Amino acid sequence: MSAALPAHDTASECEVLFRADALHKSFGGVHAVRNISLRILPGTVFAIIGPNGAGKSTLLNLMSGVHRPDSGTMSLNGVAISDMTAHRRVRHGLARTFQKIRLFKQLSVLDNVIAGFHTHHRIPFIQYLLHGPAFRRDQKRCREEALALLQFVGLDHRADVAAGSLAYGEQRMLELARALATRPRLLLVDEPAAGLNGREVDALLQRIVTLRSGGTSVVLVEHNMDLVMNVADRVMVMDYGLHLFEGTPREVQNHPDVIAAYLGGGLQ
Questions:
Q1: Structure pTM?
Q2: How far apart are the first and last CA of the chain?
Q3: Number of structural domains found in the chain
Q4: Does residue 70 share a domain with residue 10?
């Protein structure tokens, strides 16, 4: 496991990949996110935990551009993204998976991943009409890279089947591969272990570790505390839309406010 990172208020701003300051988001009279600030460094795993309804998925929706904050600011690699559309954030290096799987279920597994390369096509638009040499080279490159991603998530042997025919855990891995096709600097994953068996969770953990080792930062919203405590560098705890505590996994496990609000008898 990586060495503990400094708290975000002491991290050098030049090292910060993603920063958020004083984010607020309400839906009607419900304050889903209230005054949330955070810093994420390159090549780290930042976990967000909290009870159901704590505002975790809403925070991910703000970070990814699904929702706009009522107030507050965000930046990615020094670029302001608060008013940026979701697809433009992808081009700047932010990718997202969802708690409810969103795949093109009638397309093949391979074509689902190839769809993720749309932000990095290197050919003029006219080539899509003419299907000339540049189009064929780009198509070959995307196919090869997609197969490599499928191998990474353990689905290369299922490349030609329809995505909708995959088992639930396989669909989760396919969504991860498609997100990785956009070549993110920052990957947001929402409940990736939901519905996975123990073997699949172990494989997921190893893939997150590999991504971190390769320099990708991962924001992990997850209820599986074994996964969180074994892979996260920093953990932020939310409760009722508020920032309750942030620290290393060990600090979170032992913090009395966290135990009282969320962990009950604590974590083992």
A1: 0.85
A2: 17
A3: 2
A4: yes
